[in-house]
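A common beginner's mistake is to predict each chain separately and then try to dock the pieces by hand. The better habit, illustrated here, is to supply every component at once so that their relative placement is modeled jointly.
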Amino acid sequence: MTINTSLYSVEAVAILDNEGRRLFAKYYKAPHEDAVEDIVLNEKKQLQFEKDLFAKTFKQGNDIILFDNHAVVYREFPDCVLYVIGSLNENEVLLYNVLQGLSGALEIVLKNSVDKGSIQESYDLVVLTVDETVDDGIVLETDSTAIASRVTNAPTEDVANIKIDLSERGLLNAFNFARKNISDRLQQGF
Amino acid sequence: MSTSTYKRFEDPESGYLPDKMTVYQECLQAFNASPIRAKKCRLLLSRLLRLLYDGQTFPKTEATNLFFSVSKLFHNGDPSLRQLAYLAIKELCTISDDVLMITASIMKDIQGGEPVFKPNAVRTLARVLDGSTIHAAERAMRNCIVDSNQTVCSAALVSTYHLLPVAHDVVRRWANEAQEAISANKKLVRSPYAIHEAFGSSPRLPQSTFFHQYHALGLIYQLKKQDRMAMLKLIQQLTSRQPLQSPFAVLQLVRYVAALLQADTNLSQQFWPLFASWLNHKSEMVELEAAKVVLTGSFKFNPDQQLKAISSLQELLSVPRTVTRFAAVRLLSRVALADPEKVRACNSDLESLVNDPCRAISTYAITTLLKTGNAQSVDRLVKTIAGFMDDISDEFKVVVVEAVRTLALKFPEKHSTLLSFLGDALRDEGGFSFKNSVIEAIFDIIKFVPVAREASLELLCEFIEDCEYTELAVRVLHLLGEYGPKTPKPSLYVRHIYNRVVLENSIVRSSAVIALSKFALVNDRKLTASIRILLKRCLQDADDEVRDRAALSLRLLEAADDGPTAAAKARGLLEPESRFSLAALEQQLCRYVRSKDKSSFTTPFDITSVATHTEEEVLAAEYKAKTTVEEDQIVSSPTPETTKATKSLPEPADLAARADLLEQQYAQELSAVPEFEEYGPLLHSSEVVELTEVETEFVVSAVKHIFKEHLVVQYNVQNTLKDIQLENVTVVAQLDTDAYSEDLAIPAETLKPDSSVSIYVSFSRPHDLALATLANTLSYVTKDVEEATGEPAEDDEGFPDEYQIEDLSIVPGDFVSPCFTTSFTNVFDDLDNEEVSVYNLGSPETVKIQEVVTKLTQSMSMMALEGSDNVEGSASHTLKLFGKSVNGDRVAAVVKLVSSSKGVMMRIQVRSSDAELSQLLANQW
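With all components supplied together, the output reads:
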């Protein structure tokens, strides 16, 4: 029995649409180490893996599958599937907790409508949610409220009127600068 | 231009990606503009990330351009833009140049930025830094670890963890901060920029989720894992005074304790109270991990403790969460492989899981039940499965069939139920892999359960009548050819086979021809004559392969008429009695082809040098491999074709091949020693016997090789010291009997530090089997090794020394090798020279029947037959053993074990064609 003492426990997170196409896919590797598995760098393998995985899982109504030497937990939404992928020996419940946290947080940030459309529309929120859940394979947080509370909303409008403020100050600065310069010269007796 | 792409992206149904070049251009434009429009830029960033997370990459120069324009976004103070910008930087880091440039901006954010993106800044920093630049960030990182904001602290700890491989020494300096972080109180902070209307079922943000404990513990372990005392202290502290709040942290702690146990299994009992509490932890994942350690690790947990773990798994079997049930049943099935007895307590729970909506769970439940089931429950179980086969996919069907196959080997007497199940399975619809597994199962029954042979052959005959897979038809025909002639009524099968010749494609036809020809060898003139007629008809076949084979067979059959010697020769060609060991053949061929010395090609490859096995030996190896297979079966693989390739554990055939290769390797090593050239072929090699503890300075193990007239003991000596070299190493072996006489010893000249050598001592062996004990002493000259050269000083004469190692006994098992027979009872009845001995092994508390059985099988070096190496009840057991001695004598033993209040009684009854052998084996205990 080999004991895995590393914190790197999630191998990949993926969201596929109802035809098995990628909406989001991130295969993790430790930032300062070489990739252990070939699949991390090989996009062709990733796509093949996702295609086969999708065929095995879509509309099956289960939560977990051991697939091609990976333990995969997943959750189906109306027209997309969220996968959390770990190694074959990873604690399945750990992976499931990550999945729960992530999907719960997605529900919060996407206002309870996790589907293909809103994922594409609010892609910034989705990627931030994933990034706040897993950081290159290390689980950051599994409480969905805590995850969602880290995801910032997009700015509501572009604030353009600050500029006037700035220019006014600029004018004042110029005036002050001129005044100081002139008074200096006057004092020097010019 | 942008409107069209904009539209496409907005349309949720299209699924199109934004155009890569457009996004690139727009990003450069918008990010470099002044003033920066936060909303537009965030939208562009999200499109850029959409591309990156789809697997699109940018060439290095473009990525670098993007990277620098993203860094321009730092001029804008909007926190929500900044957070996404950090994510983009993190992703672009790996594909662009000069990422260090951004360090200053990030550091500024870490020191004084808005708390909402501070953690993102910290995590991004870990991607930008490397081993040489980490010093700049040391202070900032330390401050972040002690920050009272949980997210900042976690981010800093995780970043530090990422940096470990490149900056272990620097990171070690902030171990104190990390240690304090475990117990410190950290809070989650809500940000005004991240308020979502739909805050789900639990609208209130918890005060703290304690996740930083998980990260801090992970980091500290990496820093301190070498220091055992520190680890023990840490565990002590985290389990008593300041218990961990985060279940993830507890899970990690379980793993660290397991790692400690792996290094020193004697700690198991000391840590048991911890495991006991973890087995009842409120978090399922902790319970699961603890059970995994207790049950599957090779640690010294006693049966009661393991039973506790089983019962906590049992509770997990009935929880509503599918994943938990799955994990628990998966673990149980793994335990059942090694020790079905333990899992039996869960049988009723497992039976209720058979109808679980998740098919993977029900399949695991079924296979586990099949493993733990006893002879009585087989019928019922098989009936349950039969009802269940229709609604599962092929993949699971294969797993179930595999389980049934093992069952058939374990309970040969249940063959009729199992065969009818397999027959039904064969008639059902199914893909190739499923059919193949059914065929394999039936093949095994034919090979190892002789009573069921005819019924199975009949099934196969029926199958090939309507078989769509050529490969399977060919295999079945071959098997019919092999076993058909041995049945009482061979003519029965001839019709089925000849039908193939008439109806099938050429590949099937040609193998049917060969199968037919084998029937002609039966001593039945009428049958032989008819077969000849059939074969002659085949000469008119349209395909040349079929014609060739028919002609060859006819020619051989005609030759058989010429006399007994010719007949024997023909028989040898048509029905070879021994086969080449394929592993050895491959190895030797490779060696021959790769030989550097050109002259070796002048002589052709000598096939007689390749070891051959008789059919019995092949069967023995297969049987052993098949009954000891251990693998996690329910791993789906993308396509059926790759099933074999992706299996994580070795195939049974591999196991057999490995044992085979080991034997080959010994033979080759020995034949390389000129002194042993005249000894003839190696008859038998024993298992490796350890003669020292594993931790000693010199580790010695021995293997006993039996030749026709000699016994060679091979001592493997390993020098574990780093600064001592041994010279003239030999083993002085003193015998306690005169039956053997020492011929020669081949010492090793030098034994370098940290390496190992083999020393041989050879004895003349009396023709009869004599037991003896060797008192061994290792004698050698030690020399200190100079550090600079790695060689001892030239003038160092060294000093002679001796080292006492344990005695080596020559036991009866050394003269016996395991062998398979299909009809143990017949063989046992045929043999005479019975010897019986009875022993009392001691009280049942200390003596476990299973252990005795395993030990006996090993020490007698015989094969346990009819599944008798699996102990079922705890009260009594019968073990049936069969083997063959080096002199070719067959030997069979029946061992009866009965456990009662007086102790465990053992009665060994041995019969053999050699009186002396039975006496030795019966009295060896």
